[in-house]
Automatic annotation (TrEMBL), chains A, B, C, D:
GO terms for biological process: NADPH regeneration. This is Putative dehydrogenase. The keyword Oxidoreductase applies. Residues 4-115 form the Gfo/Idh/MocA-like oxidoreductase N-terminal domain.
């Protein structure tokens, strides 16, 4: 079992704590730090944490702390990581790692130099659906991956600091795009280098400096395309969907709005049904077990097992750094209006990529391009001549 | 933490064990019994169980055993429960409790007389969706419950003993109906007495004596209707759905086939996608985290927390007995072709039920029966005269 | 082109008229009858009908009338049909044909004796999905049909006469069950004799004498089961779904609530989205083309083509009569609490039915009962010994 | 009624003809032209067309021809339109209008100069769902439109000429993007000027010069974004979906793969289930009435009603020209890797656009940015100070 120091006591700290104390897990939150006394105290009471404090070092340095869980606003990440480095404590940190790649790189280099365990709490690559999808893709069920889109949109974040460009490091891109980019990486292959990014971003509705809506494309070394769609202007709840296309198949995941639970109610006695739900009457789509659906259960199991067994978790600060580098390119592209290269000082994946593009054989003379039954009953094949490269159609029967 | 003796090493024992060892749970399977040596040995190896045996008493009686988990075929339930009673060990048992109510009642009385902890492993009332639905219903989101249907159909069970009427106690009704009946009870209210049952059952396809398809209605004391639809002849995987109607709302749960994960594949490298899936190419509907979706996680958390904290779990042998009594009435009805009373020697719920059937007021003179906008734009209300009881329509605007 | 006399000017007459004048159809409504002057006049104006009247015979007897379309409340059906018989005019009639089988049989015998064209406007067996499903089933895509359920539930009808048991002939069963019963017949086979009915009915919510909720089972001569679920107490709109199970497949149709159109709106400017929708904000499920989705287009095309070409339409008074006979048995069963025989004085379908129940061969010695991959990776088959009939399991690989 | 000359006798000509002869429509195909004798002859036989010919002018010029329907490959559009111009015949043409904007503009100017009726057969803005969505949006159900995505992907076209860049004018962009771009225009407003386009395109799988996969963004004068996703590499059938975001709501349309019809079959006797379906067993999603779902019914009703009544149809050559201009910019952008302006020599919409971006009032001092109930039960609002512009959060209750 692990002793955990929780830094932060707000929205995400409470989600994490709910997961950490569920299902008879043996790990314990042994200290909690918050900037505000009453918040630290309330968290300590709610989760039976023996020590609460408004001094970060105090929460970290106690001997019963095996690992620090950073659940603070973005602008406090570097300070908190450096405190862990100084104390020589293992650390896991909420997303995004930094507000930009330079900040992220400093954190990565610090934890690696200190030789401490470091985990990146990118929950959405740990959702049961994401894990199953990664497994099916690695078995070849989709063939070669061509495109991986991840979409996260909702009506806007729940705390004031998100709306401040300086503190957050940006708007919807840094808040939501970090999820989408890492999700696409897990489908395309985390060892495939992201080369360049094209991004549109705008402030369409909200009264802020940062973007409230953005769409980006990330081109990878093997020709695959990652796509992110993020917004704080979406109406209707939390929209969290992935779509993947491969040469042998397609995969659609709906993590939130349509997961097999539908309810109509006239509105009596409904209450909380799901994160960022916008209504309490009419047709609703409750999420039954958010801690599991959002990946928190599998994420902390991986993190704490890895810590105990002395190996790296699935997601480390290095992954957080790569994500920041991709998002930096997205921000540059939104300004320059052209594709911008992903600048990676550190790259640990493949450096050469080979793509096999051979078509399946139709017969001795032709490759099969496609086969179709038309609405008027004809069975047709489209073929390519192996020698001339010419494309022809042939009606069978 | 609890030491668990596992009786049985097959399909369901492995599902249970997967849940019991997941997510850093502190509990341990300390012994395993199986009728076949090689099966016991393999299970012990796969789940690192220190003791395996082909003698049931030996697995149960060890001092490190805090609770026995019975995962045996139906005809061995009573024998196993009685062994726990003799050893004075806490016990939890897979569904159904008995092959009929008389057997179930003997088990209930034995564990109660012995004063041992007893849990009924009805996983499907513990699925995250069921738990959330029970909570929403108890808050009043659906108003008064009128009808609760649960459907479980698939292409047939995985072990030979299920197909033997004597060993199993029946066919699809005893195998699947036990789930559906208890699910409906949790929605309608476990303290509302089931009065009578009407059931159709037939052997439409399979080469067996027992029924492979059945549909039943259970009438409750408050006028609500429970409905079960069970079959071993369904094609297309495991169909596991609930529908509930109340005066204020509707609730639809799909526990398996449509939960937000869809995949098309040409068939390369697919493998196991979900329990009882029937194909490995084309459009598939993988279930990402069966242990959680099927309720095993929340069920064992409840059972072992209850054991530790010294209170009853949500589901006890008493619930198993009530379910058996309802199913007995279903079997009688299938033969007699009329409604059959549920015979409950033991009943611990409400004995008088009051149903409030007042309509909402429309104005001083009328109750509102319904309101509708027609396809040609008229806004209509149907009203009932409070004095005369007459029903009229009125076009607004 | 056909000249049509429309009897009735309300909800259903307007739906029919919308279909009859759409998509450049050449047919014309040449007269309209209504019991109320202002209603007849308004209908005539809206649909440019040259003649309107409050005398039924006048609307029917005009020389330009080729066919009469009866869109009147149930208690006026017989009178209207007899008027057509006297005038020797072709007739098509809204559902149900009669309030009971005796009334239906009189109408059937009258039109047949008069030798006039007669069509039964059971629109829901003409929905594009129903027609496609019937075609796929007739091709064998589902194998032998085992069970066909049709469900129609909504928050209650739109006109006062529906709520009067005497005028309507009953409640939700006669109003909605007539659809469900005929839908099941088209899937099971209209030439397969319905033998007996088991039905539960209750008045759970509405202030009426007739039933507002009912569930029934219809057993057919080939062992197949038809099921209807009807209610006026459903919350959430119009729920119109069919499910069919066969030995080779499964079919699910959602005719209304989930047809690929979903909208969330804060509620500004929404208006009519679908028949019997209950809300105008939150998540809504608009029906794009109700005339087509509800079968009106294909129904009138079939009726008027049949009239022109001199053959019977898909649905005739005979079908209406069979439906009434089944519903009569349902009402009897709801009272007697046992299965009741379907009393058919006239039956024109098969009188002997043979059901082939041979299992597929597994090898020389065994039939294949089922095949499954378990969650722990085992590939299992359940087999039946061809000689002994014994069922065994075998683990492959 | 109209007499129609059909130019072309292949896939799309047959879809059109099926719609034109359905549901008792009075219009008649009076002549058919095909480049191949046997194809013209077969079409004439199948659809009972009195005149067939391999000389285009002959099909057009006959006196009984009221309108010409051009269903030819892209490279023959201009030639066919000019023939109609010379004959002074009304014309409607399949999509895209031209292979590029210059070709489209020549056709537009020619028909306008000749003063003949001209319709652009963009069926997908005529699907029942599109028409209903356009109506709901125009009523304000979604508020101000922010983003409109349309996606059309499938496993590749059915005739050889599509695969030839010269004849088709491009690949997936010209083939499918023309639909998506016009769909987005109808949601955003056809009078809002498209300003610039950013597009990624690649040849990921197929052995062709043109692109088989592309994603593009179109920025409009009011800040709204249109998005198209097109591919010939998709696996799993025909994916045809729209998503629209507005300040007051969200709209999702699935035109094909998930429209309320699901079937599992072991594969016996299935046959054609939907255009470009890829399998005939397992879970299938049949499309019941493709002619209606794909918009052909409503499109031809609009076209021929407009012709008869002497006004313009919803879609004219002008719309086809605008679409081509947008696609030209997409192709330029795919090469230049930056946003490219839409070059419109002719623009007939708004020239000045005002966007209202006022937030709703929360109280005297604050605007409401958003409201949320968190998973731990807090009710929070995010507010903007009307004077200072500062964003704050406030916890209610």
């Amino acid at each position: 079992m692990a002793g955990i120091a929780m830094l932060g006591s707000g929205f995400i700290a409470r989600f994490y704590a709910d997961a950490l104390v569920s299902h008879r897990r043996p790990d314990r939150i042994v200290s909690v730090y918050s900037r505000r006394t009453e918040s630290a105290e309330r968290f300590a009471k709610d989760y039976r944490v023996p020590v609460w404090t408004t001094r970060m070092e105090e929460a970290i340095s106690r001997p019963e702390v095996d690992i620090v869980c950073i659940s603070l606003p973005n602008h406090l990440h570097e300070e908190a990581v450096m405190a862990c480095v100084r104390a020589g404590k293992a650390v896991m940190i909420t997303k995004p790692l930094g507000r930009h790649a330079a900040e992220a790189l400093r954190m990565l280099q610090a934890v690696e130099k200190a030789g401490i365990f470091h985990g990146y709490l990118e929950d959405l690559v740990y959702t049961p659906k994401s894990l199953k999808a990664q497994q099916l893709i690695s078995q070849g069920a989709l063939g070669r991956i061509l495109w991986a889109k991840s979409r996260e949109t909702h009506p806007g974040p729940h705390s004031e600091w998100f709306w401040n460009k300086e503190l957050a490091g940006g708007g919807a891109i840094i808040d939501l795009g970090c999820h989408c980019v890492e999700i696409a990486r897990t489908y395309i292959g985390k060892d495939i280098r992201p080369l360049e990014v094209m991004c549109w971003a705008d402030t369409q509705v909200k009264p802020i400096e940062a973007e409230d809506h953005a769409i980006g494309l990330v081109r990878y070394a093997n020709g695959a395309i990652g796509q992110f769609e993020v917004s704080w202007t979406f109406r209707g709840g939390l929209d969290l969907r992935d779509e993947v296309m491969g040469t042998e198949g397609t995969l659609w995941i709906n993590n939130f709005l349509r997961t097999g639970f539908e309810m109509f109610t006239s509105g009596k006695g409904t209450g909380y049904t799901a994160e960022k739900a916008e209504s309490e009457s009419g047709w609703l789509f409750p999420v039954a077990d958010e801690l599991n659906e959002l990946g928190y259960q599998h994420m902390f199991t991986d993190m704490l097992n890895a810590l105990e067994q002395g190996h790296q978790p699935r997601e480390t600060f290095y992954d957080g750094y790569v994500v920041n580098a991709i998002l930096d390119a997205a921000y540059r592209s939104a300004r320059s209006k052209q594709w911008e290269p992903v600048q990676l000082e550190v790259w640990r994946g493949q450096t050469e990529v080979h793509v096999d593009r051979t078509l399946p054989d139709y017969d001795e003379h032709y490759y099969l391009v496609k086969e179709e039954t038309t609405h008027y009953g004809a069975r047709k094949v489209i073929l390519q001549d192996k020698k001339t490269g010419e494309i022809i159609e042939r009606v069978l029967s």
